[in-house]
Amino acid sequence: MEPGTIALIVVLVIVVFVIGRTVRVVPQARAGIVERFGRYQRTLAPGLNVVLPFVDRLRPLLDLREQVVSFPPQPVITEDNLVVGIDTVLYFQVTDPRAATYEIANYIQAVEQLTVTTLRNVVGGMDLEKTLTSREEINAQLRGVLDEATGKWGLRVNRVELKSIDPPASIKDSMEKQMRADRDKRAAILTAEGFKQSQILTAEGEKQSSILRAEGAAQAAVTQATADAEAQALRAQGQSKAIETVFEAIHQGKPDAELLAYQYLQILPQIARGDANKLWIVPSEMGKALEALGGLFGGSANSGSASNSGGSGGSGGSGEAPARVGGPTPRTPIN
Fold it and tell me: What's the 3-state SS for 25-69?
């Protein structure tokens, strides 16, 4: 190979190397720190950048995106002298690449140690029960302290979360027993209250039912009494009308003594019916009616009428004799 060709190849290699050292491409959400002769020169923005070769030096690129760092559980002593293990998660972002490069040697380690010390200070003023129920308060205090301390390092702490709080095993067992006892107590109280409410509702229902039954019975009695009164009034009105009709019919028909005597003889067996009828009375007016009726049926009746007439003559021949005869006379029971 000729010397000229070799020299040309060497020159091309040097040119390519120089161009590679001069042109730098920075990706999006990255930042590059340029040092000239060991001193900070400038910060490269994302995109195509030109630096002086062999004079400017580009430090490793910094990630400007939000980063998540999970720290291992740290033993923390609470106010009531119990050791709990707390696992934290930190969300932070680099806002100033120059400060993050020159103000702190290792900002990840610095943030971790600051989080642990701050966490011990915050939790050390709380008892175990408050620590377990005050995550939001602890997170807010941690975020405030870390954001204030890391501001000069070019960092911004967005969120601090307690991933887990692990008390000792004996404390867990005691807490479970206490929780179980509280739940049993609440269950017993709820059962008793439910039974009480059930009894109260049952008593109220029985009371209302009794009241309604009593009101219904009272209304039924009033309605029945009203109906009975109306029925009696209607029956009385009917009987009154019937009596008036019979009375008018009798007076319009003008019945004679023979008809009345005949009707009396038809009713007489009904009057004499019954074992309790030991004595019955014949009205005095019936003498004349029977006398007239006897004249209708023949001689036997005439003889009976004659005897009755003789009795009347012995009395003075007046029409009042049958009234005297019509006193109470014993009779033979009719079976």
Answer: EECCCEEEEEEECCEEEEEECCEEEECCCCCEEECCCEECCCEEE
* 197 DSSP assignment: H
pTM of the model: 0.49
Q: Nearest-CA neighbor of 139 among 116, 119, 125, 155?
A: 119
Q: In 192-300, at which residue ranges do the beta strands (DSSP E only) sit? A: 279-280
pLDDT digits (tens, 9 = 90+) for 268-295: 676 666 665 566 565 655 566 566 556 6
209: which 2 tokens?
A: 């039912």
> How many C-alpha atoms does 198 have within 13 Å on its Cβ side?
6
CB 28 within 8 A of CB 55: no
pLDDT tens digits, one per residue of 78-120: 888 888 888 889 899 999 999 999 988 888 888 888 888 888 8
Instruction: Please state the length of the chain.
Output: 335
Residue (of 261, 280, 263) closest to 333 by Cα position:
280
| Nearest CA among 288, 292, 293, 277 for reference residue 328 | 277
Look at the domain 67-167 and name its fold. Tetrahydropterin Synthase; Chain A (3.30.479)
Q: What is the per-residue burial (b if ≥16 Cβ within 10 Å, else e) of 258-288?
A: bebbeebeeeeeeeeeeeeeeeeebebebbb
Closest CA to 280 of 270, 266, 291, 290: 270
| Phi, psi of 214, deg, nearest 5 | -65, -45
Write out the two tokens for 18.
């120089």
CA distance 305 to 292: 8
The helix/strand count (H/E) of the chain reads as 10, 12
Please give the structure tokens belonging to residue 99: 């400060």
